Amino acid sequence: xxxxxxxxxxxxxxxxxxxxxxxxxxxxxxxxxxxxxxxxxxxxxxxxxxxxxxxxxxxxxxxxxxxxxxxxxxxxxxxxxxxxxxxxxxxxxxxxxxxxxxxxxxxxxxxxxxxxxxxxxxxxxxxxxxxxxxxxxxxxxxxxxxxxxxxxxxxxxxxxxxxxxxxxxxxxxxxxxxxxxxxxxxxxxxxxxxxxxxxxxxxxxxxxxxxxxxxxxxxxxxxxxxxxxxxxxxxxxxxxxxxxxxxxxxxxxxxxxxxxxxxxxxxxxxxxxxxxxxxxxxxxxxxxxxxxxxxxxxxxxxxxxxxxxxxxxxxxxxxxxxxxxxxxxxxxxxxxxxxxxxxxxxxxxxxxxxxxxxxxxxxxxxxxxxxxxxxxxxxxxxxxxxxxxxxxxxxxxxxxxxxxxxxxxxxxxxxxxxxxxxxxxxxxxxxxxxxxxxxxxxxxxxxxxxxxxxxxxxxxxxxxxxxxxxxxxx
Amino acid sequence: xxxxxxxxxxxxxxxxxxxxxxxxxxxxxxxxxxxxxxxxxxxxxxxxxxxxxxxxxxxxxxxxxxxxxxxxxxxxxxxxxxxxxxxxxxxxxxxxxxxxxxxxxxxxxxxxxxxxxxxxxxxxxxxxxxxxxxxxxxxxxxxxxxxxxxxxxxxxxxxxxxxxxxxxxxxxxxxxxxxxxxxxxxxxxxxxxxxxxxxxxxxxxxxxxxxxxxxxxxxxxxxxxxxxxxxxxxxxxxxxxxxxxxxxxxxxxxxxxxxxxxxxxxxxxxxxxxxxxxxxxxxxxxxxxxxxxxxxxxxxxxxxxxxxxxxxxxxxxxxxxxxxxxxxxxxxxxxxxxxxxxxxxxxxxxxxxxxxxxxxxxxxxxxxxxxxxxxxxxxxxxxxxxxxxxxxxxxxxxxxxxxxxxxxxxxxxxxxxxxxxxxxxxxxxxxxxxxxxxxxxxxxxxxxxxxxxxxxxxxxxxxxxxxxxxxxxx
Lengths: 474, 474
Known about the structure:
2 copies of one chain form a homodimer. Chain A has helices spanning 3-22, 53-64, 86-98, 109-125, 148-170, 176-180, 193-202, 219-231, 254-264, 301-304, 320-326, 357-391, 415-428, 455-473; strands at 141-145, 183-188, 205-209, 235-242, 267-271, 296-299, 312-316, 396-400, 406-411, 434-438, 441-447. The first copy, chain A, has 474 residues and is an alpha/beta fold. Chain A has a 7-stranded mixed sheet with strand order 1-7-6-5-4-2-3, with helices on both faces. In chain A, strands 8-9-11-10 form a 4-stranded antiparallel sheet. Chain A is globular, with a radius of gyration of 24 Å. The termini of chain A are far apart.
């Protein structure tokens, strides 16, 4: 494909994308295809000779769109949001064109350096303690991970390396395997499944601790678990505090947990994957109080801050243990500037990495902090609108406090009734929700996801739920 | 940013990208900036109010380009290539616009299903045994990983889970930790650093085995190591065979290694990250002979097959152990179609995933198999051209056989002499190479990387090296 065709093709794609997004409200949010729908629509093998780009454009509505779940429809209320914005799309075009692999500083200094500075911009927007920022002049700093799952795993592996080192210093006769068999980490029962998965991947025990009536992990619970495990000869080494759980957007008691971790010299990782974006607004920072006690902090601009996936921002007060845990340094990756700037390959699971800081740069500049805050506030306002509509209907109840853009609710009555309601909602296909369950109670989750969502959409979504609930009761 | 501005902005970016790539030969391949160059060029914090997209366009040459190492310059010969193509850039625009997270089938059926079919297309292009393909109707199939590092780690974790399960069946009294402390994996001393790193991350012992005079791991060496370890009470569980090592593009003896692995019931993973793309050409498939004995196979279309990073293609004959190793299944991710199509979240380290199959679809269709093959053949031809130029100069010697697009060479003489030459080459800044070292011998690596590379460029690169070598001898 020559550059002339590229310009035509990309222009046609821009038109298509703008039409797709500006009219996304008109498309059914959930596809109705059955598994295996796509294979008969395309040839069995790659073509031998090149096709025209117009052939691909024609196939988009025939092959792809019937099978797309439209995450950016205002009718999409499942999971948590994933970001979509015009500035981020254009930033990725540039990233794809430069197409450098930023594993070391020399492999493309701009790729590393823009990331260092953008993570400082972002940390300042969230008012993170300066101990997390590269601009503070120490070892600290931020890094873009692919996902919060990877950030949790990276922190766990750093904590594991640190714990092994400490245990060996105290008991030189112990082998690594003996130490690892004694390590134990902690999170709330409401922590994301990826935390439990990080324990599996890292080969260490992870205890899921009970939460209080507001679904928060409390300091006392953690303290009791740590003491119990120490008595049993185990080595507590890692705690994940979740700010904004996936189940119900509860916030672990970070101040209390921080005190316990600091007193026990246990690594504290804060997973604020979804809710972290809200900390750009001063009025929500009370939920992040105690963050100065953490060793690492992570949130996903690719969820709620208009930066397209993948862009998971992670800060480490001291990356030394993470770097040491992963450090394998072959000659072909060495360079003369080593040590004077971060070689981000030591901060992450993969070796390769794209130039993702461009997305942060474009989005923060083209929205400006004020519009990013406005986006968060508007979506939280819409969640409260839905909450108020629901509270006017005595058949329903709110399952847990609405703080962010998520409303957890249920029909008063049995789990079965609520399961039926969800099945009707998703079956009808006008809106899309997913359920959750805490301590035996099944409930529905309505997340405000699309940046196109307006009051009218929320009223429509409520009407759909309310109407289907009537059918259910008949 | 409204859709009108987006269309203008993306059009301006297309123009910029086309100019950048079509004239990339004119830019110095290596930046001359010092660490820390970028911070003074941008404000200390994100702007409060939105800027104009034109402001960003103006900053590209001022802030970004001075710090870019131009991986797509025909003068870039470092590492291995990373891909860049117009069809892939446009595919990513669409992926960013749809912006679905394909962790389950229902989260966007098209995202999963196009991936299943594209990995079949790709597997057929490489002539992989049908036991690896989803179209064979069994459990097998392909998946897009972010990087070869992740594929190596995923295979290791699957192999580890399988080995633990087997050992427990034989000795139910053993704990997981006791079994893990006995596990041992193997690779060649020339395997990529990410293999050693996968061992560190997975918390298992990994032995780097000696290679023959052609830098290949041989079956006998592996067999002897396995027998020795078994005698010592260890449990051999995982072997990585590399096809196209990073150091010198050597090929492990896959047929022999496969026999040893199959006889010992050890998981065999094939890492063909770079060289795998060449197997789309029938004349290079002899290097992949024995692949039918492997459990998993991986190569990176994002290296040499014109699909932009990240797109690392991995096939598993039986993904069961990988899926079981990672499976954590919360209610909010369950859906009714579970089991009828792959839920790719169980096949990878992260939970989230982008719609990357679009890149494969666009690239295979818009190039056609014949042009992809032509690309590989041309680049291998250019490597042989450089080899022949070098062989005409009696000061130089070829370090290892040229099979793909990499030429490993050195000045006859000491390592120090070659280190000086490399320093002069990179210092002069006209071309960029990285070195490697095998068994004490330091050598220079010249990789054919850019799709813009022509014969004239190779003659220029050779002239630069040859001239600087004269200065060195003076």
